[in-house]
Amino acid sequence: MAANESALLFDQPGPRMLRRIKIINWVAAIVFVAIAVLIIMRLHNPPDGENQLSWELWKPALDGEAWADFYLPGLWATLRATCLAVIGAVVFGLLFGVGRLIPNAVVRGVCGVVIEFCRAVPVLIMMIFFWRWFAFMDLPSPAYWAVVISLVLYNGSVVAELVRSGVGNLPNGQHEAAVALGLTRTQSLLSVEVPQAIYAMMPAAVTQLVVVLKDTALGSIIMYTDLLQESRRLGSMYFNILQTLVVAGVVYFILCWLLSRLAEWLPVRMQQRTMAPAEPEPVAPIAILDPSNVNQIAVAREERPLGGSQRLYHVHHRGTNASIHNWRRTRYTQGYDETQPQSQIARDGHQHHHKGRNGRTRPDPDMQ
After folding, report:
1. What confidence tens digit (pLDDT) does each residue in 109-126 have?
2. Which of 135, 172, 237, 353 is the 20 to 30 A CA-CA neighbour of 47?
3. How many distinct structural domains can be found in the chain?
4. Which of 271, 302, 335 is the last residue of a domain?
């Protein structure tokens, strides 16, 4: 699959280009190793400082006291702000995303201005503004609420755009079918289109969680005691700021990696839930001159209006394989169906006919 996708992007390289790519890869690897060695040597023997690879500096950053008193409380503060910001961003995004799609021009314009403003203003500026405002109003935990509200506004505007793009990517037939059933534009949007858009945008929304988690680190600038702030406090106590920041970076990497794997797994899981039953059913091969495959051939030859998909209800046919086990159970039912006009070849008491094994036309036994 990956080879086919890459072939769509560019031509497959020839032997000369393959040799050139291999040489470039080896040169890049040698340069990378050389840079890594130089960094390690610099850390081991800095010109005016202590050996940064010494265990005396790494031990206070890795012992149990550091985790119990600094890392874990900071991680809990980060996760607490992230979870609340995610919930608020989803609610904000759904409200303003739907508001930007409804027919009312005033509501649509107001929602559009709010979304564009929240997307344009940097998150750090919003955090500083809310922090100073909440502190001036003497509200409790001003740094925490400044971080949460700023993340809600920025990421909620992103979720609103995901909702709008998800609705825009739906087939036009969804809206047309809802209107044909008598629903208004707003009812169609809320009952038919938005639920499908939410289901389709879920993987992109999970990817946005990584952005929310990383942006909580900006709260350390306004003195919010998250994981980054706690690691800096620990480093200032033992003068090993590099070591504590490395540990915090590893924790951030693990959390973001887990969320990225979730974002990759979710589309596959959602696609499996929307597919037909995975339990295969034995179906005989379609052969042109094989009379036992009359049903499959008849369905395959049916016309598809405007080049669309296969009909949900078929003209019902009979053949020698009429008792095949659950053949396309959701699309085809053996026998004559009086409710389908396509299968009513004759009307007003005339006999219905079909072809038998020998190709001759004879009365339908069900109509006798």
Report:
1. 999 999 999 999 999 999
2. 237
3. 2
4. 271
Spatial contact of 61 and 234, defined as CB atoms under 8 Å apart: yes
Residues 266 and 234 in one domain: yes
Whether 170 and 251 map to the same domain: the answer is: yes
φ/ψ (deg, to 5) at 355: -95, 135
pLDDT category of residue 170 using cuts at 50, 70 and 90 = confident
Across the range 284-293, mean pLDDT stands at 46
Residue 141 tokens read as: 């935990």
DSSP class of residue 70 equals I
Residue at a domain's end among 53, 69, 99: 53
Eight-state DSSP code of residue 328: T
Give the whole-angstrom CA distance, residue 163 versus residue 205.
10
| Buried b or exposed e, range 333-367, using 16+ CB within 10 angstroms | eeebeeeeeebeeeeeeeebebeeeeeeeeeeeee
Please report, for the domain that includes residue 141, its CATH number.
Answer: 1.10.3720.10
pTM of the model: 0.64
